[in-house]
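Dissemination and training. As part of the outreach component of the grant, students in the summer workshop were shown how a complex can be specified as a set of sequence lines and then modelled as a single object. The example used during the hands-on session is reproduced here so that future cohorts can follow it. Participants entered these lines:
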Amino acid sequence: MRFARLFLALLGLALAMLAPPAARAADLDAAFARIATENFNEIEAAIGDLAATGNDKAATALQAMTDGALVYAPATKGVFIKKADGSFLDARTGVAPAEAPFATKPVRVNNRIRRALEAALGSLTLLAPDPAKRLAAAEAVFKSRDVAALPALDVALAKESDAKVKRVMTQARAAAILAKPDATDAEKVAAIDVVAERGDQDALSLFANLRANGAPIVKMAAETAAGAIERRLAVLSSVQNVWYGLSLGSVLLLAAIGLAITFGVMGIINMAHGEMVMLGAYTTFVVQELLRTRFPGLFDWSLAIALPLAFLVSGAVGVLLERSVIRFLYGRPLETLLATWGVSLILQQAVRSAFGANNREVGAPSFMAGSFDFMGLQITYGRLWIVVFCAAVFAALLFVLKATSFGLKMRAVTQNRRMAACMGIRTPWVDSLTFGLGSGIAGIAGVALSQIDNVSPNLGQSYIVDSFMVVVFGGVGNLWGTLVAALSLGIANKFLEPFAGAVLGKILLLVFIILFIQKRPRGLFALKGRAVEA
Amino acid sequence: MSSVTNPELTQSILYLDGVSVSFDGFRALNSLSMVIGHGEMRAIIGPNGAGKTTMMDVITGKTRPDEGDVLFDGKVDLTALDEASIAELGIGRKFQKPTVFESHTVDDNILLAMKGPRSAGSSLFGWRNRVRDDEKDQVLETVGLKDHRRRLAADLSHGQKQWLEIGMLLAQDPKLLLVDEPVAGMTDAETEQTAELLAAIAKTHAVVVVEHDMHFVRALGCKVTCLHEGSVLAEGAIDQVSTNDRVVEVYLGR
Amino acid sequence: MILSKLLTELDWRGRVFLLALAAAAVIVPVLNLAIPEGSALNVPTYAVSLLGKYLCYALLAVALDLVWGYCGILSLGHGAFFALGGYAMGMYLMRQIGTRGVYANPILPDFMVFLNWKELPLTWWGFQSFPYAMLMALVVPGLLAFVFGWFAFRSRVTGVYLSIITQAMTYALLLAFFRNDMGFGGNNGLTDFKDILGFNIQAQATRVALYVATVIALALGYLVARAMVTSSYGKVLIAIRDAESRARFLGYRVERYKLVAFTASACMAGVAGALYVPQVGIINPSEFAAANSIEAVIWVAVGGRGTLVGAALGAVLVNWAKTWLTGAFPEIWLYGLGALFIVVTLYLPKGIVGALSEWSARRQDRLASSAAAEAGVGPQPAGAE
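and obtained this result:
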């Protein structure tokens, strides 16, 4: 009976659409008058009438009724919405009545009424003027697979003009048909086709039941559709993995790229490289603290301000380190390793003394927050910016090396120190600046890493092994090799994770690199020849 | 290797045929062919980058050629062996830069080079302690380091280190010695002494000497091969080669 | 016989070292057991164990010196071999707990019961037997070093590359041992030991016995290492350190020489770890941390690499300083350690023992100009060639 009544209501609704507005206003008044009663049958009919008006006052009233806030005054048949603070609104007009109603009673609700309310509200939102609301309503029906919503959907579909909303409504309708016990097989097969268009996890879960115990023909259709969706989802998850891998690879590259200069180009084993990254991260922290207290409006600019400062701080520490320690150890790589390890301990302890041993909070500017959907991929702005930033740093570094006079001098010194000295290049000066450049880039990396990792004195330690692996894997002295190594390790890591788990995946990669170095001790893109071994 | 019966091959101690090596597109050796006879002494000259050291690397197993045959004693394919096996076969090599065991005494340097078992296992149980003093003395005598035998190799002069390294080669008693720039950085007197030393060694061994110093090459008085861009440019007696127009153009200069 | 030959062949440094160890093996237990507590001369039991810990580190340092000082292999992963030996001992001690554990399971250690495991994993089989556990403390690190070295040395991974991959090795093991499903106690590791060979591990006498065992192990380790480096094998090893390719072109299979040293060194480190665990009462994955391995390198550098005695001395000195400084000025310790790394590499490249013997050699030179410099303490093994 409920269906019939609802159908009638919707029919009425459809007719109401055709009727002039004045008539509809009259319908609304009549429906409100009808609801002010003790009789459940009358109330149910009134709900149908209200839904039929398609009016948003009706929607508000019905919503209030589900919340138990719709009251009526038996004396005047006036219907009101009782607000939380005890004041009233006239349900017909939506404004406060001139004088407070007297001796009001709540409109009665039982289970039958509640069901009618839900259906009515669903159909009302399906007809809401705002397309976003209609879309949400259609999605809700799709998820709930509510057979009861079918008539309302049909009506809404007939009236719908927005293509996107219409598509979702069609899918919702198909989902409801699939759930309908008395739908024919043909109807179901057609519905499967419609639902399959979505191609997402929701569609797949909708088919699960049909694949298990549908009629043969339905079963087959569901199988086919589900297969297609599964393939699509598999591709999507691969793409997702590649994307996560790229962003992880970018992080690795950022951490390693400074090392690619100090270790790859200059041959200095700088175990304090991770601490240069850490200094960059703490510079970001300090900048943000200052902005927070002095210029809160500039907070979104904090990273942009921190970048040059981090470069300068880490670069300066790098130059200092080169001048005071490393230059005495050129040609003694193992000693350099030990001395710079000592430096890393000192830097860690210094930061611990200055900022404490705990993690420091570094905030994300607003443009880093949120995410967007790209062809079914959820892409967070944070990740996107890191990838973009990493590419920019890499490009800038290439530019410095290939297109500036400093880069030229630097390459000259690393290739033939004595010759470069004879050409009038001040090699010690170039050494310091090159080391400073590598350290400065590590500092820049620290700004980016402060966004995704805990800023603590141990920040650098967690990157040092990875960074060396990347540089060695890519081939020492080859920036492009470092790029390829970082990205491929990042992607490999993300593909291993689902099978092996994060930790085991990482172990497997480490073992792989250890074995790889055995095979090609000079990395992926090693320089060959006699000079290398000298 | 179709030419197993090739007399040139069977009579050679070292036979290189069509050997090519490239490093990242740069052809260090370009179809190099050369034959060294038993007991022969040969001087190799050529400009920098002509492939002289790469040729030595190929012979001693440090670098694998991309193509070509390298045969030792007319039968052993050197391209399939590693440095240690090649050394055991009887090829000794002196590097361009004197390379000796700096923290060992002169005596120990010679001792380590002397013929004998080389395995790690046997060394643990002290084969090297059975000192063959007479042989060692003879080598030290030959290279003129007898008075310095107790000194650390690190304390020797540059020329003495070169001689020590040659002495180590002698102690190894190879059939073929490859000597890379033995007189670089030596005084004239030392150079002369070295030429005499090598000439004496050449009486009983095949020797290949790479050298830039034309006076020294002349003093050796042996057949000369000039390399250029990884292959042989000219070969013959010193006078013949040094007047060759191409050699003059690319190497000696006018 | 070999031992007596070794003793007669020892240089003065070795004799002093062994005498000092012998004295330490006798005097410390006497001062602990015979002198009443509260007396000024009494060595408290905790100090005996602390000293035992230092000597374990000293054995690790001797092992490291064998490969670094004499063969030029800077291993940044020796802590892994040490920890593996420690885990072998820890597993034996866990099995000895038996029903005295919290869950009173006669077979399974507590953490396995906690993880709902039903039976003992294969890796734990046999560890109730002390000889087997001790064999594993030798074999497992040795085997790992053998396999690792086999690949690395054959492919001629040298210098810093080797250092970096040894570091990666210990890092990978660190991550692995943190995992609960590895079956080694996850990040809590193995602890709450009760007894060893039937003796209460907390008892004073047991602790003293463990200490004496450590002194003996260190002496033996030193003698073995010393025998290796003074033999012909050692001469070749030093030759490889100074000029690897010269050695190769003389016909030495460099990779095998290195492999022998690396494996022997790892076994020695394993023994050190096995003795360490009962004296500190715990082994957990943090022992695999790269920082530990690098710290061990600085002990060797401080004492003087390529001297063996110096390595042991450096380990004891640095750790004693660490105990003292972390107690007195906790903030200062890392600054001090960091500075130590820098100062030693810049100003004291031969370490304490190396500098001392250089000084005494110079003095002897002045006394008798004919006296030759002592062999064995070489100059920096610069990457010759």
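Chain B has a mean pLDDT of 86. Students were then asked to discuss how this feature might be tested experimentally.
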